[in-house]
Every structure is written in C-alpha cells, then in structure tokens.
Amino acid sequence: MKYLSSIMILVSLCFFFKKGWAQQDALYSQYMFNPLALNPAYAGTRNTLSGVMLYRNQWVGMSGAPQTASLAVHSPIKGKKFALGLNLMSESIGPTQNNVFLGTYAYHVNAGKGKLSFGLRGGFYSTSIDYNKLHYVNEQGKVRGRYQKSSANFDFGMYYHTDKFYGGIAISHIGNPKVKFNGSDALLPLQAHYVAFVGNAFVINENLVVKPSAVVRYTNGAPFNYDINTSILFQKVLWLGVSYRSNTSKINEASLVFVTEYNITESFRLGYSYDFNLGAIKRYNSGSHEIFLGADLYIKRKTSVSPRFL
C-alpha cells in the first residue's frame, strides 16, 4: 500500500506541470442529472429554483484518490429572459486541494420548437499543494510547506432544448489561466476543456421513458474521452441506467457506470452511481461511488416541459 500511495501522489503531481496529463476538471458520472456542472448555459432551463448537492469518491481504497464535493444552484429570473446560477466545488487529489467558486449568467431565446441559451460563468479557481505529504526518493532539493494560490476563471456554453431533446457545448478555463505558487517552482496551467453533450427522451408510454445520452470531453494533453449512457424511467419515479466511459487518462482506464435516480417527491430526487473499472487498475481499488441530492422548488412550472426528462 505504501508503494501504491507513492504512485498516487506522483500521479497527482502531474496536474502541476505543463507536460503532465491535462484532464483537470472534476469527473462526474451523473452528468445527465446535473448538466450545470458541465455547461453554464443550462442555468434556468428547469423553470424553477433548482439545486444539486453531489459527492464523488473515486477509486475507493486507493491512497490519495480524488474526492469531490460540489453544489450547483440556478434559477430563472421572473419576467426576464435570463437566469443566474452558482457553482461551488472542492476536490482533493493526493497532496493537492482545489476549490472553485463560480457565478453564472445565462440568456435564453426562443428557437423553433425549443429554446437556445448562452451562458457565461466566472469566478475563482483556488489550488493548494502540501509538500509535506510527498515521499522523496532523493532528499536533496526537497520542498516542504503548504502553498496556495488563486486565479480568475471563465467558462462559456451554449445549450438548446425542446420538451424531450437537449444538446450543448461548453468551454472551461478560457484563456488558459495559470496559477504560480509563491515560494515554490510549481506551476499549474489550467488547460481549456471542451465538452459537448446530447440526449433525447423517447416516451414509450406514460409509465416508460427511454433516454439515451452522450458526453464527449477534450483537452490538450489528455485522451479524447466520451461517455455513452442509456437510462430508463419507470412509473415516473425511478431512473435506471448504464454508461460506458472511455479512458480519461493514462491511468484511469475504461469503465462501466451503473446509474440510478429516485424521484422522492415532486420536488426532491436522490441519485447514485457506481463506476467499475475495466482495466488493470481495478485490482487496486473497489470502484468509484457518486451520490447526489437534487431539489426543484417550483415557482411556476410549465406543463409542456418535464424536468424529470431533462
């Protein structure tokens, strides 16, 4: 386990060097139930004050593995064509801690049978690294202490949806902002991340809905990555689904993801997913868990749009 711990710490450090792997944004398996985490233009599209609290524990049993907690809240502004949103995220990976605070403005326009929205998100990306947690093979030149730095961050997205179809594209870390740690030579370049997702709800009957969806991700220095999912809604209450995810990095190999969401009431929903690694890394962990609680506090809901589909 000490050997594996050292491996994970070294993997984490790769986030801090320009030639390291560039998949820096948090990974979410339940993107289809939490689109605001991927695209700021989604803000306000549920026609209500809506929020999702999520916790992800990746590679359970492996020292230094990522753990992510996030909160996404958004709402349309009554009588206006725009919406506001807020994203908070805290993630620990080995000796590093990333904290994100972002506010969102989205503008909605009618487009054919649906609506098209444009979203701009801005705020701060804060990163700290604790060198005291590192194990050095060579004691010469070792660094000690904890360093923290913040940088401004901006994201942009577009999102289109009808009653049953949705699709969007987004880019995060516009301009590739860089974080330089005072007192340390470590440099964190925030690479631009490109995300596109699409989905459609096929209503078989009033008690059965099938919703295939997909998301693709790309950033310079990391493998092209995609998730393909099919989820089924039973009796307007229970979603069950399965996803296939391609490699997200040189160590995070392809996975099968099992997804479920339960509509507790008209306003509250609970979701859970389990990632099962298909590659060699599965020998060193017991999978990844993700749980979320969603709330829709209806102000004025349009009957033509069901938030249970989108």
Short overview:
With 310 residues, the chain is mainly beta. It has one helix spanning 2-13, and strands spanning 49-57, 67-76, 82-93, 96-111, 114-130, 146-161, 165-172, 178-180, 187-189, 193-200, 202-205, 208-219, 225-234, 238-245, 255-263, 268-277, 288-297.
Question: Could you please describe the fold and organization of this structure?
Answer:
This protein has one helix at residues 2-13, and strands at 49-57, 67-76, 82-93, 96-111, 114-130, 146-161, 165-172, 178-180, 187-189, 193-200, 202-205, 208-219, 225-234, 238-245, 255-263, 268-277, 288-297. It has a 14-stranded antiparallel barrel with strand order 1-2-3-4-5-6-7-10-12-13-14-15-16-17. The chain is built from 1 helix and 17 strands. Residues 1-22 and 302-307 have low confidence and may be disordered. It has one domain: Beta Barrel (Porin). It is mainly β and 310 residues long.
